[in-house]
Amino acid sequence: MAERYLKREDLAKLIDSVCSGEGLFVGPKMDGRQVVYAPISAYKDIVFDYIVPRNSFKEFLFPQTEVIARYAVHKDGIDLQGVKAESPEMVVFGSRPCDAASVASLRSVFTWDFVDTSYTEREDRMVIMTIACTDRDEGCFCSTVNLAPDSVGGSDLFLKETLEGGYLVDIVTDRGRTFVERFEGIFSAGGADVDIKRIADVPRLKGVDVKKIKEDLRDTSHYDNDDLWAGLTRKCIGCGACTFVCPTCHCFDIADEGSALEGERRKNWDACQFDHFTLHASGHNPRDTQYKRWRNRFMCKFNFYPNKFSSRGCVGCGRCIRVCPVGLDITEVMEEMSGR
Ligand code: SF4
Ligand code: SF4
């Protein structure tokens, strides 16, 4: 039995409570014709009928751009001041299980050889309220990467929609329990006799085996088969959209903006799909063609990441498939690689 019950209309009180304490309430909201994760200040703005928002919510943990230091040159020297990242309390309502799972992937990379506190302090204050998926589209393939429409990993609270329009709430983490206890009047006890909506069925992609892909990509004859990669990815125009919407892509660049006398140092999203991403100052570029850049992204997801970390490089959200302007489908490459 679920530990708590949340009425849909009580979300209004939750939003008010979080926002009045200067917290940020993030949830699914319309942006033009698409649903996105965005800050929400009013219950009426929440969208309840969606599969997966267009963006991931990584931008609230790892902003597209942020100032990390300011510098000023004086006659006596240089002032360099680090800028502490803002980390307000954040509540993500309506996360999908794939997105909740992706947070462990981001944490792996931001705490690996250096602990990036601008990331960890934000994540440590984020409460993730995931809703189990009751629908899917052709882009979803979470089960193929060993997740499911009701996977709880990465969530603090796990919600299942009821037929009457509320949510059964499972408490997954201590952070989730503290949150529920803080808003005791909003999360009521029980929910014993309430029927839940049917969880979506996301079948595994036929013939795709991520373990085999990981092992086979170690075989350099696959890696070095330039004709294979060029053929599979020839459509790619290097726009980088797949990386920006991907919940696990995390590459960034550091750039100084301002004059020679004063300015700020920024951390900006970057993408391995851009031609200058690996361009050396000498003019040499080790990934000098698009297929090499695309191969790197695939290797990162299915070989580098799973070999280095216990978390996933890909959570099967399907965003990169939906957003790609030329219809390059990562699952087709997974199929090809599984057959080799
Ligand atoms: S979205 Fe498509 S075209 Fe753009 S970089 Fe990614 S794979 Fe290439
Ligand atoms: S690679 Fe594509 S399917 Fe996998 S997590 Fe990133 S956007 Fe989602």
Walk me through the structure:
It is a single chain. Helices cover 29% and strands 21% of the residues. By secondary structure, it is α+β, with helices and mostly antiparallel strands. The protein has one domain. The strands form two sheets. The chain has an eight-stranded mixed sheet. A hairpin with a 2-residue loop joins strand 4 and strand 5. The longest helix has 19 residues. 34% of the residues are buried. The model has no long low-confidence stretch (mean pLDDT 95). The site of one iron/sulfur cluster (SF4) has 13 residues, from helix 10. One iron/sulfur cluster binds next to helix 8.
* Mean of all residue-level pLDDT scores: 95
What composes the largest sheet? 8 strands, mixed
- Helix tally? 11
Structural class by sheet pairing and helices: alpha+beta
Series of H and E elements: EHEEEEEHHEEEHEHHHHEEHHH
Give the domain tally. Answer: 1
Biggest sheet strand line-up: 3-2-6-7-8-9-1-10
Q: What Rg do the Cα atoms give?
A: 22 Å
Strand residues, percent? 15-25%
Ligand kinds:
iron/sulfur cluster
Shape estimate:
globular
Helix content: 25-40%
The number of E-state strands comes to: 12
